[in-house]
Structure formats: C-alpha cells, structure tokens
Amino acid sequence: MTQDLETPRTPKPGELTFEAPRRGKPPRHLADMTAAERREAVTALGLPAFRADQVSRHYFSRLSADAEGWTDIPAAQRADIAKVLTPTLMTPVREMTADAGTTRKTLWRLHDGALVESVLMRYTDRVTMCVSSQAGCGMNCPFCATGQAGLTRNMSTAEIVEQVVSGARQLAAGEVPGGEGRVSNVVFMGMGEPLANYNAVVGALHRLTDDAPAGLGMSARGITVSTVGLVPRIQQLAQEGLPVTLALSLHAPDDELRDTLVPVNTRWKVDEVLAAAWDYARITKRRVSIEYALIKDVNDQAWRAELLAKRLRNKLVHVNLIPLNPTPGSKWTASRPEDEREFVRRLEAGGVAVTVRDTRGREIDGACGQLAAAE
C-alpha cells in the first residue's frame, strides 16, 4: 500500500491511523525556513537581507538564544528580528540527570501545552542526542510508554532541531560533566514515529546536516532515523540523498507475534518491511540497524533468535538488542540475563553482528514517554 500517510482521510473502524490531531501551529522559526525564506522574512521588516544570515549564524554556529548578545546587529533591530526568526518554541518543565550527570533527560512543554522529551547522553568518544519527532505516538505498540499515551500532534522541523541546539548549548557552556563539547550524533528514537511526520523530519535532517549558516553542519553518518516499518516512507527516504542510518524497530521475526507487538505489521508484514530495509541499504550504502527490545517470555526464545538470524544472514545489517526498560504498571519486563545471553549467542552463531544496548537512565524514568506520562 502506498497511500500518503499524511493525507487526511476517514479511518475505517479499528484501523490504525497516522494523521496527527490538528492543534494550533507552532510559531514559525528560522529552522523551519530555507535560507531564501529567512531573507524574505527579514526584508519584510524593511531590513537588509544579510541580517538573516547573521541571525542564522548566531543560532546554528554560536548557539546564541539571547538577541541582546547579537552585537553585529543594531540594538534597535534585534527584538523585531528575534520575534520573526527565533520565537520561543519550547520551555523546560523538568530535567533529570543520571550517570554522574552525563545523561540528561529534559521534559519540554511546547507552545500549545503538548509535552515531549529529549535525552543527552555523553560517552567518552561521542555525545548523542535522542530527540522526539511527535508529541505522543499513534503506533500503539503495547510495551511502549509513549504508545500508551496516544498521539497528540506532529512536531515542527524547528521544534525537532531545537532539541539538538539546546543540548549543544549545554555542552558549549560546560554544563555537562566532561568539559565543553559538541553533539556528534542524533538519534530519532524519542517520542513518536519519525516517518509518520515525514516532511518535518526530513526538514530537520537538512537543518542538522546543512553547513552554517543554513544549519548545524553535522555528518549524516552520525544521524539515525528509527521507524516501526512504514514501508512507503522508507522507500521515499532512500531517495532523499541523505545517507542517514535507518533503524528498523522489528521486535519479532514472525508476523504472528509482530502483529501484536507492532500493530502496523498488520499493514506491512515482516517480509515487506525487511525488503524495504534492504533496498534502503543498497541505495544509501548504509548498514541497517535492527532494533529488538527483549521482552521476558514474549520474544526472547532461542528459536526466535534463530529465525531472526535466518532472515538477516548475509545482509548489510546490525542487530541492536535492547533490554526492555519497564514502565510503571506494565506487564512487560526485561528478559532474564541468561535468556539475553542465549539470544546473543544464537544470533552470532547465525553469522549476524549484534550488540546489547547500553541502557542509560533507568533511575530517571529512562523509557521514552515516562516523564510526559507522569507530568
């Protein structure tokens, strides 16, 4: 099925829907605009077009949020330009830290009251930002805290980018243990299904990878976009010329179980989803990451590991096993250590590269959506 997932239509009874509820539009921000659109916004104020490039450098390169510090712009013009190009998009509600301060989870309130989360994770060799692309999620995966909350709305390109810029500001200011630093990696693994908010996410990818003053100038190879398997969008992303890593949240190698764990599987089955992933790898030359949350007595059986290995053998792929971070009141919990080790052993015996994800932030409601749900 190749229906446009962002085109409004009336759902059939019991059918999954991908359209976000309509709420007030976020303020338009320079990160939502092309370079030409930024210049047009500035000239509409009666100011020289080059002021747009100056403000873009302040935002993307100098990470400056305070117009009063834009000393290369006349003081009388700063407030008007800031109002047009850098309106406030989100305000922090709560921040929690773990791992001696190197993991920092922030709950944000958007302009309309919607809540989203982002996480900064500093390692010895990199800094990764995990960002949200939707407020809530409509995919209904039963073991996911965000899925339990349902979908509130899509986020704008600028709201997505602002999460990364905010983390970059913290690093540049030396607020994260380890001294000054920079964001080297971004993973779209926070709240929401990124490919159900396709246009805004692709816009964010451009802002993250475009050189200053158009964007942050990050390497596309340091960016990962996750999906539960929206096949038409995977195919579309492969043609964008953005060699980001695709992370496929598979969670089960067989349709019978995946229909339950990942309800979108009732639309696109395992074979079809994997075929789209292999096409993505062939076109982009990027290794696909298979995300697999290990759930006790649900999907962690040895035979499922062998079936998974059979499906993935000889492909440009890596399996990322995720010990499930249980949410309050959920019947789902992480696999036993011995079952996790056996699952890894069976995959490796089948010739598949596999790692077990370093689970950070358990003591700060690490599962995505837990802070928003608590609030």
UniProtKB/TrEMBL annotation:
Record-level Gene Ontology MF annotations: methyltransferase activity
Region (Disordered): 1-29
Location of the Radical SAM core domain: 123-363
UniProt key word Methyltransferase: yes
Cofactor note as given: Binds 1 [4Fe-4S] cluster. The cluster is coordinated with 3 cysteines and an exchangeable S-adenosyl-L-methionine.
SMART domains (UniProt xref): Elp3
List of residues binding S-adenosyl-L-methionine: G192, E193, S226, S249, L250, H251, N325
Enzyme Commission designation: 2.1.1.192
Keywords, ordered alphabetically: 4Fe-4S, Cytoplasm, Disulfide bond, Iron, Iron-sulfur, Metal-binding, Methyltransferase, rRNA processing, S-adenosyl-L-methionine, Transferase, tRNA processing
GO-annotated biological processes: methylation
Binding sites annotated in the UniProt record for [4Fe-4S] cluster: C137, C141, C144
Record's catalysed reaction(s): adenosine(37) in tRNA + 2 reduced [2Fe-2S]-[ferredoxin] + 2 S-adenosyl-L-methionine = 2-methyladenosine(37) in tRNA + 5'-deoxyadenosine + L-methionine + 2 oxidized [2Fe-2S]-[ferredoxin] + S-adenosyl-L-homocysteine; adenosine(2503) in 23S rRNA + 2 reduced [2Fe-2S]-[ferredoxin] + 2 S-adenosyl-L-methionine = 2-methyladenosine(2503) in 23S rRNA + 5'-deoxyadenosine + L-methionine + 2 oxidized [2Fe-2S]-[ferredoxin] + S-adenosyl-L-homocysteine
Catalytic site: E117, C368
Primary localisation category: cytoplasm
Cell compartment(s), UniProt: Cytoplasm
Cofactor(s) named in the record: [4Fe-4S] cluster
Entry similarity comment: Belongs to the radical SAM superfamily. RlmN family.
Miscellaneous: Reaction proceeds by a ping-pong mechanism involving intermediate methylation of a conserved cysteine residue.
Purpose of the protein: Specifically methylates position 2 of adenine 2503 in 23S rRNA and position 2 of adenine 37 in tRNAs.
Record NCBIfam families: rRNA_mod_RlmN (TIGR00048)
PANTHER family assigned: 23S RRNA METHYLTRANSFERASE (PTHR30544), RADICAL SAM CORE DOMAIN-CONTAINING PROTEIN (PTHR30544:SF5)
Alphabetized HAMAP family for the sequence: RNA_methyltr_RlmN
Protein name as catalogued: Probable dual-specificity RNA methyltransferase RlmN
Organism of this sequence: Longivirga aurantiaca
